[in-house]
Amino acid sequence: xxxxxxxxxxxxxxxxxxxxxxxxxxxxxxxxxxxxxxxxxxxxxxxxxxxxxxxxxxxxxxxxxxxxxxxxxxxxxxxxxxxxxxxxxxxxxxxxxxxxxxxxxxxxxxxxxxx
Length: 115
Prior knowledge:
Elements: H1 5-27, H2 32-51, H3 57-83, H4 94-114
Helix pairs in contact: 1-2, 1-4, 2-3, 3-4
């Protein structure tokens, strides 16, 4: 799983979120939602990375399930930021990127559970 699309996209997504977080804090002085978003969004990639070193297939699945839960939470924070007009055009692709990660995680989990 070293160079899989899931790993690559989760890292790129985390980098985009970190930049957005910095923008929210600096430009909008938004501290609560931005911190929640940062924590859940970067946790997606962290759990995917951790899954690479799972000690068993159930452990691997568990890490990916946690990543999926974090992706779902991230979607929620992005929705709130969008609805409160704190998601500018420069970052309007973040919900789509998060959705893409979610789809890949769901597909991976389904495949793992079916084997």
